[in-house]
Amino acid sequence: QVQLVESGGGLVQAGASLRLSCAASGRTFSSYTMGWFRQAPGKERGFVAAISWSGSRIYYTDSVKGRFTISRDNAKNTVYLQMNSLKPEDTAVYYCAARNSPFTFSATTPSADFGSWGQGTQVTVSS
């Protein structure tokens, strides 16, 4: 089992930037695809981005392409989400997640098979 702890959320104005971090412990971080998801008030949790275990493959949901960047540092067991040009519609609780199986990544269903979740960090973007 992996433990995930997110940080870096906050209240910002539209157009600002934030960087979220997710620190992992408990299993071999460098073997697993990691992802970011978000849940806005009254909505279901949705996929934001995923990065493969080596960082060589990345996938974003369309609404964040060109604004958000996912990255990872396997030496620090940490995955990041750099969020630029934030919009009020980006307001949500952001969750870090790890894929269930090592050395797997799906470009066709990038949000599938994530089974370990952090507690979430709130991002609020004011207009």
Give a description of the structure:
The protein is 0% helix and 49% strand. By secondary structure, it is an all-beta fold. Strands 2, 4, 5, 6, 9, 10 and 11 form a seven-stranded mixed β-sheet that branches. The chain has a four-stranded antiparallel β-sheet with strand order 1-3-8-7, with no helix packed on it.
Summarize the topology.
Blueprint: E1 3-7, E2 10-13, E3 18-25, E4 34-39, E5 46-51, E6 58-60, E7 68-73, E8 78-83, E9 92-99, E10 114-117, E11 121-126
Parallel strand pairs: 2-11
Antiparallel strand pairs: 1-3, 3-8, 4-5, 4-9, 5-6, 7-8, 9-10, 9-11
> What structural class do the secondary elements suggest?
mainly beta
**Please, what is the average pLDDT?**
95
Alpha-carbon distance between the two ends: 39 Å
Overall 3D form: globular
**Sheet with the most strands, sense and barrel status:** 7 strands, mixed
Strand content: over 45%
| Secondary structure: helix percent | under 10%
Strand runs, count: 11
Q: Number of helical runs?
A: 0
Order of helices and strands: EEEEEEEEEEE
Radius of gyration from the CA trace? Answer: 13 Å
Contiguous runs where pLDDT drops below 50 for at least 5 residues = none
Concise description?
By secondary structure, the protein is mainly beta.
Question: Keyphrases for this structure?
Answer:
single chain; 127 residues; mainly beta; seven-stranded mixed beta sheet; 11 strands; 0% helix; globular
